[in-house]
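Retro notes, structure queue

What went well: the backlog is down to a handful. What didn't: a couple of records were mislabeled last round, so from now on we paste the full input next to the output in the thread. Example, using 3-dehydroquinate dehydratase from Petrotoga mobilis:
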Amino acid sequence: MILIINGPNLNMLGKRPKDIYGTETYEDLKDQINHFAQNNSIDVEFFQSNSEGQIIDRIQKLDFEALIINPGAYTHYSYAIRDALEIVNVPKVEVHLTNIMARESFRQTSVTSSSCDGVISGLGFYGYILALEYLKEKLKG
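Corresponding output:
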């Protein structure tokens, strides 16, 4: 099973600034991921929280084979989430809907990415699909 964790404010997609995040909702994101996963025989589970502690608790359950995480704003300062990710010995991909390197300077730093296999940033919902493709191949091999 591949766990997909989404951090703060991802549940508000469709209501966030449309020029940055578009008009699609969090449910649209989950639908697109589920469609791809079903067509590729991938078992996914979603977890979304606006709470740092809940995200850490979910990571620490260690009941998944691989992980996709969009830590949201926690990307830039949560050493606690970074440390939790470091403990988990499974393939992990950090995903961001927007290109964090093209945004405000405070968003251009990721303290969580060093605990992941890679980062996909700026490709919108498609970033999650690419992460699933990578993890599917990684788990096969």
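Agreed that this is the format going forward. Reviewer comment attached to the example: Residues 62 and 88 are 7 Å apart (CA to CA).
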